[in-house]
Design goal:
The structure holds two protein chains of two kinds. Chain A is 41% helix and 21% strand. By secondary structure, chain A is an alpha/beta fold. In chain A, a hairpin with a 4-residue loop joins strand 4 and strand 5. By secondary structure, chain B is of the alpha+beta class. The two termini of chain B are 25 Å apart. The model of chain B has no long low-confidence stretch (mean pLDDT 83). In chain B, helix 1 packs antiparallel against helix 2. Helix content of chain B is 55%, strand content 16%. Classes of the chains: A alpha/beta, B alpha+beta. Chains A and B meet through helix 4, strand 7, helix 5, helix 10 and helix 11 of A and helix 1, helix 2 and strand 1 of B. Strand 7 of chain A pairs parallel with strand 1 of chain B.
Chain lengths: 413, 74
Amino acid sequence: MMDPIAVPWEPRPGVPAAITVSQLARLMRETVRSNPLLSRILVRGEVSNLQTAPAGHVFFTLKDATAQVSCTLFREDAELLGFDFEDGMDVVVSGDVDVFPRKGTVQLLVRAATPAGVGAFWAAYQRTRKKLAAEGLFDSARKRPLPSFPRRIGVVTSEIGAVVHDIVTILRRRYPIAHIVVAPALVQGPGAPASLRRALAVVADRVDVVILARGGGSLEDLWCFNDEGLARAVASCRVPVVSAIGHETDVTIVDFVADVRAATPSAAAELVSPNSVELVIQLNETGRLLAQSIREIVSDARERVKGLRERMSPRGLRRSVESNREQLERMHDALSALSSREIFRLRENLAAVGRRLDLLSPLATLQRGYAIAEREDGHIVARATEVEEGDALAVRFQDGRIHVHVKGGGQAV
Amino acid sequence: MTDDPTFEESLRALEERVEALSRGDLPLDQALAVFEEGLAFYRRCHAILADSEQRVTKLVAAAEGLAEEPFPVE
């Protein structure tokens, strides 16, 4: 039987057929997801109806005077927040709008959040500071010294703007030896802590020291440097970290944790780098000491040669003279290639030694009746103080040797 | 990267040679050898300081992990 008021419904061209609820929900979701205005958005509002599920996911409503939106914050993201949500808290959240077909709800999936308003900032800052201080993360005993000569210097900051430019300029002037590795990161906004942590983690494996820097900004701008997760990442960084965040009067949690806190990014660059000009001075001084040492050694050798002239056997003396002369000639050659005034004087000394050696006439000296005292192993006894009573020595003459025992000795005459 | 000693290594090696010489207990031939080594390290240090041109690179995501590309600074 047919309902009398029912009108047979015929699909007409151009008019769509009815769709199912599921199809509608899917269409809504696709519409929402494909709209770029609804993804990666920042929303400011007040937290209400806050609930934390046993699994750690956080559900709340974000509202203002005339509207409200359901929000979900998954556990992984909640753990990275660095502060705890509270009902009534004024926050800025970032995330994506999405549709949940099962309940037919539209929700904001929150990825990150920061407190808005000075009061909330201050409270969260104090909480984090107390917590990390209690764990000993600010202890001076934890601070590591900066490397004296870093080969590679990491810079974690925004890749645009004055900060990276200032740092590179100063390092170029002071210490061009080092290789600078810039690890770009977001330095403000809800995504900044995670971005900074990522940059820090990847650059730490490649450098000897890291500068974590940001230029001046408002309290909100600098907020990400009070992030607990970032502070922990700085504390556990493989290499020392120098922080330079905001102006000198801004002190963030990261500044407390860093191995060294610099007043400005430029100061940080100076702290991590030795000054090449000072290095040249130090190097020249060390070079001068090197030349001076060898000069003294040569001078001593000359004294010894002088002493030996009267005590050596002909053959031994000639051998010694030959070998000394060879050494002195090599030394002379090495020094000839130098050009400083110091070394020029040293060279003159060496030349004098060479002339003196040429003048020696060992055979004649020994033929005149001098003898030398040796130990059993052939070592020449040059000084009376080298021997003690009872020592066995040999005395060499031009025609042979005799063996003797020391009767008294150990004293200079 | 090469295995050439770095500035720090060269400077330390030079300072070690100076120390060894200033103790004054080396035989002449060894003293000469040490001096010549010190001289080589001294020259190496100067060469590093004179020749180095700063490299600045930027870490970027690459197909496999990370890569470094030149970071332009005027």
